Amino acid sequence: MQPSLEKLYKFFKLEAERGYDNRAVVGGLNKILPAWEGDARIDRLPEPLIQAVIQTLTQYTGLETTARAQSLNDLWRTIQASARVDKPANFPPPRLEQVQSPPHAGGARSKKPQPENRRIESSPSPSPALRKTIQADNPPNGKRIGLDAPLTVINGIGPKYAQTLAALGLHTLGDLLYYFPRRYDDYSRLQTINRLWYGQDVTVMGSVQSTNVRPIKGGQAKLTEVILSDGTGSLRVTWFNQPWVANRLTPGTQIVISGKIDQYLGRLMISNPEWEPVDQEHLSTNRIVPVYPLTTKVTQRWLRRVMMDVVKYWAPRVQDYLPASLLDNANLVALPTALQEVHYPSGLDQLHAARYRLAFDEIFLLQLGVLRQKSTWKEADARSYPVDETWLGTQLSCLPYQLTNAQQKALHEVRSDLVSGHPMNRLLQGDVGSGKTIIAALAMAMVAHHGAQSAIMAPTSILAEQHHRSLQAIFCPPDPAVDQPGMSTDQVRFLIGDTPENEKKIIRQGLADGTIKVVVGTHALLEGPINFDCLQLVVIDEQHRFGVEQRSALRSKGENPHLLVMTATPIPRSLALTVYGDLDLSVMDELPPGRQVVETHIFLPIERERAYTQVRKQVEEGHQAFIIYPLVEQGDRDEAKAAVEEHARLQKDIFPNYRLGLLHGRLKPEEKEDVMTRFRDGQFHILVSTSVVEVGVDIPNATLMIIEGANRFGLAQLHQFRGRVGRGEAQSYCVLIPESDDAVENERLKAMVETNDGFILAERDLEQRGPGEFLGTRQSGYSELHLANLTDIRLIEKARQLALSLFEEDPELVSDKHQNLAATLQRFWGEAKGDIS
Q1: CA angle, 413 as apex, 411 and 414 as ends, to 5°?
Q2: Going from the N-terminus, what domains does the chain have, and what CATH number goes with each?
Q3: Cβ-Cβ contacts under 8 Å for 544 (sequence gap 6 or more)
Q4: In terms of Cα–Cα distance, which of 624, 609, 616, 643 is closest to 704?
Q5: Which pLDDT value is given to residue 477?
Q6: Alpha helices in 148-256 (DSSP H)
Q7: Close Cβ partners of 581 (under 8 Å, ≥ 6 residues apart)
Q8: Phi/psi at 288 (nearest 5 deg)?
Q9: Average pLDDT for residues 487-501, to the nearest whole number?
């Protein structure tokens, strides 16, 4: 026996001899733990066993005498089984005069004896399936010792089966407790057989009258048939290829079955129902039954049984991390109750209350996290860049158009950020063509006015080149007398991977010595040799195309620079409050004067020639067209049209007199850039493309967008496609062609015809397809959302209001009543810091 266990045995034996008075060690038996834990790890005892000892001795002081004796004997039997110790657990029970109530603080003994046969337990003992589990509550510091135990502590789950469960994301007892059902079957209302009707989902209790197994399909399969009676009638019940059922359901057996009523030869029946003997606790019948996501080799019946054991024992022991005042304000049920009811609800009302509580927790923890991130950002210091009204008025007067009200509001917000003394962390969201670039340009002009540098990073070379041309037109006017930022073309540079090395060297030098004030580029800006003299503003275009690490890498090239990120994907309000809650938002929901609203139409597949006629009409008028396909190449099993094959067909059979370009994701980056450049320069009349053109270059001459297989795309994508046209003065059109006549009724396609408002479409897209398209790389924390719905704006606003109140009261969560919440928040977010990292 290992030395640590030998020492433990001696303490236990002495404690038994003293009548379990908790004085075998000065100060109580738990005082041996710090030294003993170190010895146990030296002896390499199993971690679950170490934790079992820690928890038993930690709780020992609060037990009455008889329970103490039982706990030491139970613990030693666990040690015997786990560490193969042959010394038996023979600690004697206390004598009658030694039996006492739990001692008061300080270990004082109660003088009032209790009857020997009375045993006080704070909660029910675990079932046999959980005898091996670590018996621990959630301690105040938030460390879930017991719930962090591996699934192998459950009898019947070995390493191999644990690997199977890992495919479901189940690794610990805590994972099981928070593995929520995907739906529920309500079998809670028992029915008599004489009241059944076709199509019902029912639960029936009765007695087996007869059992028969017969071969079917020429002997290749077997059908088990049982006649069930409840005194009001008889019901035929069958199981396909489950002959073992007959051995269990002998005549006279009382059972409960649940399933859907079917009909065979005019008589009601049930095929392959769930069933259980009447004397068992009904987990799959006679109640609202949970239905869990499964994987190969895991059945509902087995998983429900394990879940019942885990939930029954552990849910009452989970400590609620939300303060009582918050639970009252939000009208929430307690966490232990929610965890029990969400798995095995006692009624529909209780189920709804449980799911609401758990969904609230997810949104609330998400809100606390983004508020913490926003606070961290606001606490940092940054340089201030004030400009006077005269200077700003001069810049605005030089623009070829007046700013919209939305642009003026966004400019005011950006200007306020730049003079605040704290780093700007703003998301500029605006529909396609709403004029975001000019706001970014004016922000860069303010920084350049003070001699500092700015960098703008775009996801593609051609988009970066477009920004470069626009910025040069603004910053480097042909008339040097105009009082603008006064930059020369050499001070506004363009850097991509294909930039010649000698030019890169000049740009690197200009950035390092500060002579270059604005640089526009792609990922090439992140390269190690590129250093800035005074980088003070970072602008990220199409921010969802870049990871947190890439944004952070560019920001790290300056000292707390201001950050402005832009997106052409309108963000629904619910996501703005959650996913992007750590950013200040500027919304641009107006189109600049002169921008045309794109007419949108749905054509049936048989009307495709009508669309081609429209292409010819636009090309003959000197314009260009896009034709988008959902696939790159035709697959063996996919009937959707594909870009490669359709490009060849269109060029040969439909538009032989026009020049057609081909763009798709399998082209090399330089090939993509070449195709887009040639299309922009008018060398192609028509561009055949896949979704890679979703976010792309400005082609003012393109007036027609045809989208094949339109029913395959989400609203956000369709709206982005449509935004590729209508950027010039000519009226533009978008034609949606679904794959079938039935798909014409698709709600997404109808919505595209009804509105050009990207924000309305974004809300509908979120409802129909979920938040995936909006998240981009901002995944931290959002993978933990299992029950919360990011379209539930009422719940989100409620959680945000309460999170703000709590954050104002105790932003660091240092109060004693918030310690468990702080630990839970840390587990929820992990090491993630969002975009501030």
Answers
A1: 65
A2: 3-122 (no CATH), 189-286 (2.40.50.140), 389-420+434-567 (3.40.50.300), 599-755 (3.40.50.300)
A3: 567, 569, 774, 775, 776, 777, 778
A4: 624
A5: 66
A6: 159-166, 173-177, 244-248
A7: 366, 367, 370, 371, 374, 800
A8: -80, 115
A9: 86
